User: Fold this.
Amino acid sequence: MFRKISSLLCAGLLLAATTMLCAQDLVPALLDQGLKLYAARDYRGAADYLGQVVDMAKDHDQARFYLAYSLALSGNAEKALEHARVLSTRHPDQKQYSDLVKQLEDEISKAKAPKEKPTVPAFAVAPRETMVLPAESRTLVKPRVSTQTYDIRPERPKTQLELAIDKIDEGDSEGAEKMLLAIIAKEPANSEAHHYLGVLRFNAGQYQEAMKKFEEAIKANPKNFQSLFLLGDSYRAIDEYAKAEAQFRKAIEIKEDSFAMLNLADVIFKQNRIKEAEEIFTKVNKKDPRIDDALIGLAQIKLYRGFTEEASNMINEVIARGAGNPEAHYIKCQILMESKYFEQAAEEANRALTIMPGSIKYRAALAMALVRSYSITRGLEEASNILRDLPDNIDARLVLAEGLVMSGASGDAEEHLVAVEKRIPHPLVSKLRALMAIRRGEIDAAKDLYRQYMQRSPGQPAAALECAQYLEGNQEKQEAMQIYREISEQFKDTAYAEQASEAFSRLDEEKRNTEATQERESRGIRPGKMKY
Assistant:
């Protein structure tokens, strides 16, 4: 039992830390999966997922309520009682919570009392009656009685490590750190103690320090999945995507975990290896279609490739499920920005932030939408606030650079572009520098920068179309025609292919007319003149 509880707590803390500070919010997906496992009577599995939700969102009463029942039904009544008492204390007027506390206390007393012969505890639940509710819903459904039962056994005293983990759960970081350091002083090679010190650093946004602790944990136990996972997420948080990829791959070698695979796909996507990312998202989606983030990842790839309508349909499908997934609203924000609906994009970014307040990723998306909707001052303020906390954040620097370019402060923008370029060859850096070159009247430099923008955006028709349009407008019509042809052939059934095809036809007709005119002139034929 202890090993099971320990592994569940590790997984919960792992994913809690990941969700609070990184690009992906797992709460809705985990809640959805937990309630489905509960409905399928897999109470131990349900407790695993619901426990992670409660670790991440301590005020999530619905998750805690079902977690209490799941724990009791899987033989962990003492822990179930802890959660029931939290609910009863928080909502003293809710009879269902006080009843649950009393029921658990009675069952634990019976289990501890001397018995002449084994008895079957009456405490049980019929999960088939459970309704899987949206994550944002606070309406709780009391589980019904079932015939399925589990023995409730007294638990042995908690270890120092377990007590330290409890302190992390309670938000007592200082107390947890003291206990973990005491454990390490006695056991320098205690992998789990090093790991949870890393979790404390990670939660505080001290990624470099967190990495050192996770590396110590891995040194003590090379098979420590949780430490490999969070080491990868630490690199991802500071935009070191190649290093993050290496750690996620090591973690997956130990356990083919869906969330590790999703994070791997994400960092591969950010390195512009789109096809490879798509394969991983597809694999996760086939493995468990209930994980919304896999479908969201596929929608993001559809958007990148110009299939805006398909991407929109996929995202709307996720939103319609009512799971309150902030990533779905984030991608919808990107879709709306791609379609030039910047004010609506800002609304979607705000929806994502309502679900996951404080997310750096969603704050940066909001800032960009504000800048592009000409609320430049507000957008720049938001991006500046992000940089105060994370000076190397790429998204915030790009927002500042674009806003400054739009405001005419190209010199100040270049500082941010240089900072981004040191980290990653981002396509937007090339595009913004092209716009700056145009303002300076450096047309040839702008052409080269637009070409670089397209090269840095492989497989993205939007960038190719922008490049072709600029080249066409600056007397590079033959090269523009070639790009238009490639877009229309490689991205069929997209709006970009339609635009490119029309542009190619127009230029081709213009070219043929020009050639015909030159042919007539070479033969001495002029308008209004007949040659015999």
User: Anything to note?
Assistant: The longest helix spans residues 495-522. Confidence is low (pLDDT under 50) at residues 1-24, 116-150. The CA atoms of residues 3 and 352 lie 36 Å apart.
